[in-house]
Amino acid sequence: MYSAGSLFQLLRDGRPRTRAELAAETGLARSTVTQRVDALLASNLIGPADKAASTGGRPPTRFAFNPNARYVLAADIGATHARLALTDLAAEVLAQSADDLLVAAGPEIVLDWVDRVGHDLIRQAGRDPRDLLGVGIGLPGPVEHSTGRPVSPPIMPGWDGFDVQGYLQDRFGAVALVDNDVNIMALGEHNVAWSDAPHMMFVKVATGIGSGLISDGRLHRGAQGAAGDMGHLQLPHGTDVVCRCGNTGCLEAVASGAAIAAKLAARGIEASTSFDVVALARGGNIEALQLLRQAGRDIGEVLAAAVSLFNPSVIVIGGSLSQAGEHLIAGVREIVYRRSLPLATQDLRIVQSSTGDRAGIIGAAVMVIDHALAPAQVDLLMSAAPAAMS
């Protein structure tokens, strides 16, 4: 039987419905639908919308999802940057802040920034701290999603095993969810641009390289949350290059923004970050453009195997290096279309991210929203603290 939480899922698409329409969709009795709708109205998760057309008498009221009932705090932490935003329950950004911040500075410094800036955003937006639905955060390293703890992250000294989830829950008094940054970017990109593509691969190319997999419309994390960590797959021609993880020949050590910047610096060209590489490419620097094209080919070597194994309908290239133009993506396409199985590539699209630096923020919000507004959670919210949501 449809609980109030289950009935609410029908309204999350944003389309207003009358009680009669909800009864027809669910097969529930009108009296049961009225009871469920009244409970959802009391929770403020839905509200009255426009009046429906009437066949006579008073027109029936339509009800719709109220995305302003609560709000979410979403954080996207990269190797050298941090972004934080408040979003509504449709993952629309209400307020945001960004700063240069080294994840290598350690968990206390980074998470204290989230704590301080997050509370500032809540205060500036005039929102009640009790209306915070949850906190979502993406980190640039392997995360055991079930515990929210990073596991041996190569570029995050001091983070191994740190209880990020507990730290944030203590400071915000709300549920906190943690994932790696590429997984939340995949969620964000899929939510905004590719919701009609059930099989999608998002590849982040920045200081490091990683991927997030959407399978049957859902994020695929694997057994422990390590699925998609393509940056540490070995390239056959890169075995003399030492990676930060301790191995040699990793894709990330050869084709990431940091790797390209190091190659340019070795040639006497001023570059130390992915952003420097992008600026050089946009300025027409031939060596930067050539290295970007080769990086695309190297990434394509790994993706060609992934395409044959996973068979996505779209590969989205994101991260700071994707902003350098078509040279990187052209290199990826060159190898993937040549090396992958014809059946796997006959309808495959390889495109640049349309969400840019918003992908992580949106994805972190979606992660929390999908968890906290699942049927059982909605039922729990309403039964545990109905007054807190009104």
Automatic annotation (TrEMBL):
Q: Which Gene3D superfamilies match?
A: 3.30.420.40, Winged helix-like DNA-binding domain superfamily/Winged helix DNA-binding domain (1.10.10.10)
The family annotation for this protein states: Belongs to the ROK (NagC/XylR) family.
Q: Which InterPro entries match?
A: ATPase_NBD (IPR043129), ROK (IPR000600), ROK_cs (IPR049874), WH-like_DNA-bd_sf (IPR036388), WH_DNA-bd_sf (IPR036390)
Q: What is the lineage of its organism?
A: Bacteria, Bacillati, Actinomycetota, Actinomycetes, Jiangellales
| Pfam families, sorted | HTH_24, ROK
Give the protein's recorded name: ROK family transcriptional regulator
